[in-house]
Amino acid sequence: QVQLVESGGGLVQAGGSLRLSCTASGMIFNINAMGWYRQAPGKQRELVASINPRGSTNYADPVKGRFTISRDNAKNTVYLQMNNLKPEDTAVYYCNAQITTWSEVERDYWGHGTQVTVSS
Protein backbone atom coordinates (compact mmCIF):
# COMPACT_ATOMS: atom_id res chain seq x y z
CA GLN A 1 0.00 0.00 0.00
CA VAL A 2 2.82 2.40 0.81
CA GLN A 3 6.24 2.57 -0.77
CA LEU A 4 9.29 4.60 0.16
CA VAL A 5 11.75 4.94 -2.69
CA GLU A 6 15.22 6.32 -2.04
CA SER A 7 17.72 7.72 -4.51
CA GLY A 8 20.98 9.62 -4.54
CA GLY A 9 23.49 7.26 -2.98
CA GLY A 10 26.85 6.50 -4.51
CA LEU A 11 30.61 6.67 -4.19
CA VAL A 12 32.29 9.93 -3.24
CA GLN A 13 35.68 11.01 -2.00
CA ALA A 14 36.15 12.31 1.51
CA GLY A 15 35.13 15.95 1.70
CA GLY A 16 32.57 15.54 -1.06
CA SER A 17 28.80 15.86 -1.02
CA LEU A 18 25.76 13.77 -1.82
CA ARG A 19 22.04 14.44 -1.67
CA LEU A 20 19.61 11.67 -0.82
CA SER A 21 15.92 11.79 -1.66
CA CYS A 22 13.04 9.62 -0.51
CA THR A 23 9.48 9.80 -1.80
CA ALA A 24 6.50 8.12 -0.22
CA SER A 25 3.64 6.94 -2.42
CA GLY A 26 0.44 4.94 -2.05
CA MET A 27 -2.78 5.25 -0.08
CA ILE A 28 -1.42 7.91 2.27
CA PHE A 29 -3.69 9.88 4.56
CA ASN A 30 -1.02 11.63 6.62
CA ILE A 31 2.74 11.62 7.11
CA ASN A 32 4.11 12.52 10.52
CA ALA A 33 7.86 12.45 11.15
CA MET A 34 10.28 11.48 8.38
CA GLY A 35 13.90 10.59 8.82
CA TRP A 36 17.08 8.93 7.70
CA TYR A 37 18.85 6.06 9.40
CA ARG A 38 22.08 4.32 8.47
CA GLN A 39 23.64 0.96 9.07
CA ALA A 40 27.34 0.29 8.61
CA PRO A 41 28.71 -3.27 8.30
CA GLY A 42 28.73 -5.00 11.66
CA LYS A 43 26.88 -2.16 13.37
CA GLN A 44 23.33 -1.49 14.44
CA ARG A 45 21.05 0.80 12.49
CA GLU A 46 21.24 4.32 13.89
CA LEU A 47 19.28 7.54 13.49
CA VAL A 48 21.00 10.15 11.33
CA ALA A 49 18.36 12.90 11.24
CA SER A 50 14.62 13.40 11.51
CA ILE A 51 12.14 16.13 10.70
CA ASN A 52 8.53 16.67 11.74
CA PRO A 53 5.77 18.09 9.52
CA ARG A 54 6.39 21.62 10.83
CA GLY A 55 10.09 21.44 9.94
CA SER A 56 11.64 20.89 13.35
CA THR A 57 14.78 18.81 12.98
CA ASN A 58 16.93 16.49 15.04
CA TYR A 59 20.46 15.32 14.20
CA ALA A 60 22.83 12.69 15.50
CA ASP A 61 25.95 14.26 16.98
CA PRO A 62 28.39 12.84 14.36
CA VAL A 63 26.57 14.62 11.51
CA LYS A 64 25.69 17.95 13.10
CA GLY A 65 26.95 20.84 11.04
CA ARG A 66 27.56 18.61 7.98
CA PHE A 67 24.16 17.11 7.11
CA THR A 68 20.88 18.93 6.53
CA ILE A 69 17.47 17.26 6.46
CA SER A 70 14.51 18.89 4.74
CA ARG A 71 11.12 17.87 3.41
CA ASP A 72 8.54 18.85 0.84
CA ASN A 73 5.16 17.97 2.29
CA ALA A 74 3.36 18.54 -1.01
CA LYS A 75 5.58 15.91 -2.66
CA ASN A 76 5.74 13.50 0.32
CA THR A 77 9.51 13.72 -0.02
CA VAL A 78 12.36 14.00 2.44
CA TYR A 79 15.92 14.98 1.55
CA LEU A 80 19.29 14.60 3.20
CA GLN A 81 22.04 16.93 2.04
CA MET A 82 25.37 15.48 3.13
CA ASN A 83 28.44 17.72 2.98
CA ASN A 84 32.05 17.20 4.04
CA LEU A 85 31.55 13.45 3.95
CA LYS A 86 33.93 11.25 5.91
CA PRO A 87 34.85 7.58 5.45
CA GLU A 88 32.98 6.81 8.68
CA ASP A 89 29.77 7.98 6.98
CA THR A 90 29.95 4.89 4.75
CA ALA A 91 26.77 2.89 5.29
CA VAL A 92 23.45 1.89 3.81
CA TYR A 93 21.07 4.79 4.35
CA TYR A 94 17.39 4.03 4.99
CA CYS A 95 14.45 6.37 4.73
CA ASN A 96 11.79 6.14 7.45
CA ALA A 97 8.37 7.71 7.69
CA GLN A 98 5.51 7.53 10.16
CA ILE A 99 2.47 7.16 7.93
CA THR A 100 -1.26 6.84 8.43
CA THR A 101 -3.03 5.25 5.49
CA TRP A 102 -6.72 5.16 4.63
CA SER A 103 -6.91 1.65 6.11
CA GLU A 104 -4.27 1.55 8.87
CA VAL A 105 -3.32 3.58 11.90
CA GLU A 106 0.06 5.32 11.96
CA ARG A 107 3.09 3.07 11.78
CA ASP A 108 6.67 3.10 10.58
CA TYR A 109 7.52 2.45 6.95
CA TRP A 110 11.01 1.87 5.60
CA GLY A 111 12.72 2.21 2.26
CA HIS A 112 14.98 -0.49 0.88
CA GLY A 113 18.12 1.53 1.48
CA THR A 114 20.73 3.25 -0.65
CA GLN A 115 24.46 2.68 -0.36
CA VAL A 116 26.75 5.60 0.46
CA THR A 117 30.47 4.92 0.21
CA VAL A 118 33.07 7.53 1.12
CA SER A 119 36.63 6.83 0.09
CA SER A 120 39.61 8.30 1.90
Description of the molecule:
This protein is mainly beta and 120 residues long. Helix content is 0%, strand content 61%. The protein contains no helices and eleven strands. It has strands spanning 2-7, 10-13, 18-26, 28-39, 46-51, 57-59, 67-72, 77-82, 91-101, 107-110, 114-119. Strands 2, 4, 5, 6, 9, 10 and 11 form a seven-stranded mixed sheet that branches. A four-stranded antiparallel sheet has the order 1-3-8-7, with no helix packed on it. The mean pLDDT is 97.
Please describe the topology of this protein.
Layout: E1 2-7, E2 10-13, E3 18-26, E4 28-39, E5 46-51, E6 57-59, E7 67-72, E8 77-82, E9 91-101, E10 107-110, E11 114-119
Parallel strand pairs: 2-11
Antiparallel strand pairs: 1-3, 3-8, 4-5, 4-9, 5-6, 7-8, 9-10, 9-11
Order of helices and strands: EEEEEEEEEEE
End-to-end distance: 41 Å
Percent range of helical residues = under 10%
Using only CA atoms, what is the Rg?
Answer: 14 Å
Report the portion of residues in β strands. Answer: over 45%
Categorize the overall geometry.
elongated
Q: Label the structural class.
A: mainly beta
Number of helices: 0
Q: How many strand elements?
A: 11
* Average pLDDT level: 97
Largest sheet: 7 strands, mixed
pLDDT < 50 stretches: none
